[in-house]
Amino acid sequence: MNYFDLINLAFRILLMPVAFLVGGFQQKRHLRSLEEREAQLKDIVVNNLKRVAQPETVSSATMVVGQVVIATDYYKSFATGLRNFIGGEMKNAISLCNRGRREALLRLQEEARRIGAKEVWNVRYGFSNIAGTGNSAALQIELIAYGTAIVRAR
């Protein structure tokens, strides 16, 4: 191990507590934002049913999409890597997926609101792992929520 490898190792070790604190702060801030926006959008009805109830009252139907790419911080990536090595449940990855799913759904609801819809039917989710490679690769996922926004005739 040469001098530069030792510096790199020391930097990574020093970076972990900073990443832990900053990542935790960012996650808590994002969770608060999700809760506030979910409360604001609770009037937009979302369901996974394929057939629209009372189709004769529908004046327009439009596909709406909510998409998010979300990643873990350095500390959580390191902890997830260790968990992958020793086995067990990856709680950091579960938290990341839940936050991503909620964010994608909120973006879908926001798009529905922009077009004047109060309902979104046949909601589905798609997922893609877009993580990089190497030792410092963060867990990164893309989530997409899509469905049919319905505007009813008055």
Explain this structure to me?
By secondary structure, the chain is of the alpha+beta class. Helices cover 49% and strands 26% of the residues. The protein has a 4-stranded mixed sheet. The termini are far apart. The model has no long low-confidence stretch (mean pLDDT 87).
Secondary-structure blueprint:
Elements: H1 3-40, E1 45-46, E2 58-71, H2 74-86, H3 91-114, E3 119-129, E4 140-152
Task: Determine the oligomeric state from the structure.
Answer: single chain
Mean pLDDT: 87
| The CATH superfamily title | Hypothetical protein apc22750. Chain B
Helix amount, in percent? 40-55%
Features:
single chain, 154 residues, alpha+beta, Translation Initiation Factor IF3, 49% helix
Give a quick precis of the structure.
The protein has helices spanning 3-40, 74-86, 91-114, and strands at residues 45-46, 58-71, 119-129, 140-152. It is α+β, with helices and mostly antiparallel strands. The protein has a 4-stranded mixed beta sheet with strand order 1-3-4-2.
